[in-house]
Amino acid sequence: MILREKPGTAELLFALRGSVLPHIAPQLALVGVLAVAAMLWDHNVMPLPHLSATPFAVFGVALSLFLGFRNNAAYDRWWEARKLWGGLLADSRSLAREADLFLDDTEIRMQLLRSMRDFLHLHRSALRGLPLPAGEGPDVKLDAMNRLLAEARHNGRLDGFGARTLSARLSGIALAQAGCERIRATPLPYVYSLLVFRTSWLYCLLLPLALVEPAGWLTPVFALIVAYTFFGLAEVTEELAHPFGNTANALPLDAICRLAEIGLAPHLGEAAPPPLQPVNFRLD
Amino acid sequence: MILREKPGTAELLFALRGSVLPHIAPQLALVGVLAVAAMLWDHNVMPLPHLSATPFAVFGVALSLFLGFRNNAAYDRWWEARKLWGGLLADSRSLAREADLFLDDTEIRMQLLRSMRDFLHLHRSALRGLPLPAGEGPDVKLDAMNRLLAEARHNGRLDGFGARTLSARLSGIALAQAGCERIRATPLPYVYSLLVFRTSWLYCLLLPLALVEPAGWLTPVFALIVAYTFFGLAEVTEELAHPFGNTANALPLDAICRLAEIGLAPHLGEAAPPPLQPVNFRLD
Amino acid sequence: MILREKPGTAELLFALRGSVLPHIAPQLALVGVLAVAAMLWDHNVMPLPHLSATPFAVFGVALSLFLGFRNNAAYDRWWEARKLWGGLLADSRSLAREADLFLDDTEIRMQLLRSMRDFLHLHRSALRGLPLPAGEGPDVKLDAMNRLLAEARHNGRLDGFGARTLSARLSGIALAQAGCERIRATPLPYVYSLLVFRTSWLYCLLLPLALVEPAGWLTPVFALIVAYTFFGLAEVTEELAHPFGNTANALPLDAICRLAEIGLAPHLGEAAPPPLQPVNFRLD
Amino acid sequence: MILREKPGTAELLFALRGSVLPHIAPQLALVGVLAVAAMLWDHNVMPLPHLSATPFAVFGVALSLFLGFRNNAAYDRWWEARKLWGGLLADSRSLAREADLFLDDTEIRMQLLRSMRDFLHLHRSALRGLPLPAGEGPDVKLDAMNRLLAEARHNGRLDGFGARTLSARLSGIALAQAGCERIRATPLPYVYSLLVFRTSWLYCLLLPLALVEPAGWLTPVFALIVAYTFFGLAEVTEELAHPFGNTANALPLDAICRLAEIGLAPHLGEAAPPPLQPVNFRLD
Amino acid sequence: MILREKPGTAELLFALRGSVLPHIAPQLALVGVLAVAAMLWDHNVMPLPHLSATPFAVFGVALSLFLGFRNNAAYDRWWEARKLWGGLLADSRSLAREADLFLDDTEIRMQLLRSMRDFLHLHRSALRGLPLPAGEGPDVKLDAMNRLLAEARHNGRLDGFGARTLSARLSGIALAQAGCERIRATPLPYVYSLLVFRTSWLYCLLLPLALVEPAGWLTPVFALIVAYTFFGLAEVTEELAHPFGNTANALPLDAICRLAEIGLAPHLGEAAPPPLQPVNFRLD
């Protein structure tokens, strides 16, 4: 995630970090070259058909519709993923407090909280597609936490009230976990990507035919601006739609896990580690 | 569900798998033929009335409104269905953990979890319209699970805390089940389909009259692009609005059920089956 | 509710069942007659002022805004109402299961479930504005169910866990009931209807002045298409905004109540009635 | 709240009750006079600059964006407020049932339900800005209800299950109360009102310069229609954004409180009062 | 937060308090100067290329899409933050009532409520980025409240029902706290700001080329109006996206904390402080 203030004049002109420009530079170059070629051909070789604005206006409204929908859907995925991790952070803090309140046995409590910490890291790794230790996984860890509770209950160290409270906490964690897995495993329907990219290309490639008459030598400028907005938005959407990826706009799962560690530390009798800081405006 | 990466150049040009093109080819062919015929007739036989952009602009905004609304509503149905199944997956895992915690009797616990597994498959079959075994059904299975709990409670093997916890889990499952049935049994109002398809056809058939003057011999190209965006979106919408169907964009219920089986296996003392993999980019 | 497949060619051309055409035929006829009159007067008697597209484009965007907002709000009402009834269906099934689990006395349990069945029918009748039996009503029935629980509790046949479970179920049902009453008693603000209908009429009546020059003898065709989309959407909205009415797009409350009866039957020791089927594509 | 059927022909032409026309008449008059003056000046004195549609189209899209956003936000406030009061209605009915189930002492129960009734009226008065009795307020009343429960619990007349149930009900009521106070105390950001009203005025005052050429003597008609839609929508928004006010579109809190009284009456052994009826189509 | 009535004529013309005008004055000045320069150069020195409306219409729709999306997302953040604080207010009142009901020991109760009051102020300070006392923080305070409960439970002064109730309250507070931290720590993706500001600048700087022919000497007026709407909306969005900041549109956390103090006072046996009042229309 990029953490920068509202862009000032300098950033507006030059900021590349956090910008989509580097990702769409090849597409822009191609659109620019073709627009220049169309303009030169039209002036010097043979006039191209000069299209009116009509077809592009209709086309543009439809394309905006796709782009807008896809952008909203992708942002919703990103923000829902962030909410789920915010919920997991609150869950880890509440688990520690509920364990203090309902679990008398210090040893079991420590094991439970250490397992919670492990769970968060395993969950993060699974979402990021990192390799997991053999026989380990977020589910295995939650099962282990549940076994701790079952043992404590059978040994009379956890009463019914505590069992209900802590078991509800575990199932809340499992729900957030399944929510993250849902977002990871179910991308936006592929068909939208095809529709959007195909239509954006058609639009940008045909646009010079409509611009060459009214815009003259500014044709490539306008074609580039339009391509910048359309491809830029499509690219941003692609990144936000995968909130657990490794792109600049992905969620800072490492930093959130660290916050959870900070919250668990006093309950484990440990010193809290420092929060992660953004490096070069980027927090991972 | 189609699982592919962001489309590269090759996919943009040639991808048919996951594309709507094959589904709307007949409509596109008809629009293309009529556009060519209108253009030729206008050039060679007798000029057609050349319409200005005005009526189409207004018309196009209204049509975009319908298409956009229907698309949003269909996507919401699809995503809500996915959320409900993600919730069922979490429910099956939490049921196993709660049974471990609150149900001492191993035999009852095994029966309960096996019934849960059967329930998911019966629920999936019912949503997909597959034949159910005689006298079986998701509701029958949930009733059977509840009877297991009632017996355990009367035999003193399930205390009040456990009864509340497990009965709340069952009613959560029943709520998700009713949610899926709601989506299956209540399609998007038919009247929207009529409005959208009728208006799209009128638009595409009349469009050549507005294009023939400004677009010249590019008339069929533009008519086809507009038809592609409008019919393509209408077709995608139709598929997403039925998330439990057998289309390429339907939800991968088999794969989700398999995930639930994997989560239940250790609690049943069984080896976990492997997760389902996409075949030819498609996961069912 | 209309239950039809995706419209094929024949339905696109001729379907009236589920279409709004019959409802807006008078308005369309009036718009058509006036458009023809304007065109003839302009050609033969005296030229009318020929308006440019400008005012209509602005006007059309504003009108689309109203129509789109109202349509979304109406669909949200309809879908929320459907969700509430889907929740009531799940509530009736869970009530039966919870009664099996927590209420030992068969007679009280039967009375409770029969009252639930009566409640659903009374609730449906109240929403539809049908006459209720004297001294009966959904609230009276819920009070009666609560009295059954209170008696069982005082007689020691319902423990604290069961009382909490069943009382939470009743209050969930009361919440869904109040939600349905809210939708029924609080229509979309009347002022939106006035704004939309007044603006639609002004638009359609003035439109021929903008069309007569660019569209020529196609003026009435376009005026009719625009009127079809605007009045059609306004009419659909009106129906969906009243999900408990008797229109073709109202919710099939009879069919949902029947599903609840089917789910309650085995718990009452009765044979399940068959589900309701659509008659002439319509389910009530 | 205005309760009228779908507007028929007569209402479309003449309805003022529930219309925004009376509220925006001065603005419309000013716009009309200025449009006539601009037209006359242009014809008879000296031609004004005749603007093309371009700037107004762009401007109009931006203005629609503001108006649409503000309208959605205001309607969401209004509908959320209605949902909160619908929830309070269900809460009052469920409180009565839960008291019957868990509170044996009739006297305490009566006091509790009478306090609930008082709370609703005090809450309504506070939201409407009416004077409250000295030392009274919705919070004071909820505290009093809680004290009743605390006394019953200490006297052994309310067990743990009942205490949890009734205390959860009270905190649900407190949440709905805080939600209403939030809507009342936090208006839509003022800056939006300024942006919308300033932009609407600029638009309507400059519009005749774009209309005078294409629309001729219809200039004032179009200017008035556009002003009607823009100021009308802004005015409706203003009313809906304050759902607890005294305008025609405010929520009928009196009628909802009466419904709660009707539901509480049988539990208090009283005769139920009749529901409030709309007077001159208006329910308060 | 600015608290003003619906703007009247005087405010429309002159209000600066709560307006974005002061924040965007430099941008507007630059746009105005450039528009005047372009107009003068075009008239007196050498004609600039006169662009048609086409490219700007397409461009404008895309820009509106970005602005609209960003505005919605920012308002949602602002309103969600307000809901979370409204929930915290209700939580503090309900905590006081639940403590009265379930915690017999007056001293522990007083400590708990005083800690709640401290928590709110610490939470507010952390969100606003104010310095916190050494070793203090909202989490530390919640841990201390939990320890109070754990001690009371171990001393037999809090039974299982009370422990579940109060512990659920604490975890609800922790969830709202994590929600606020989420909004504070996760800004809107930076890439949107870049896209919006870059596109707005390009649009406003190129616009005079399209206006100079149709708008003549009104070119700077229209350029300024368009810049006012675009930069104004972008600026408002920036403020609302940071609801815990110190801007005029930030949330009045001081006033909400004061309301919580007023609600806690009677439970602490203290006199309630007066509510905070807006100063110069502004509430902090």
TrEMBL record, chains A, B, C, D, E:
Membrane topology: Multi-pass membrane protein
A Pfam family the protein falls into: Bestrophin_2
Cross-referenced PANTHER family: UPF0187 PROTEIN YNEE (PTHR33281), VOLTAGE-DEPENDENT ANION CHANNEL-FORMING PROTEIN YNEE (PTHR33281:SF19)
Main location: membrane
The protein's name in its UniProt record: Bestrophin
Transmembrane intervals: 20-41, 47-69, 190-211, 217-234
Organism: Gemmobacter nanjingensis
Signal peptide feature range: none
Compartment annotation: Cell membrane
Keywords tagged on the record: Cell membrane, Ion transport, Membrane, Transmembrane, Transmembrane helix, Transport
Family: Belongs to the anion channel-forming bestrophin (TC 1.A.46) family.
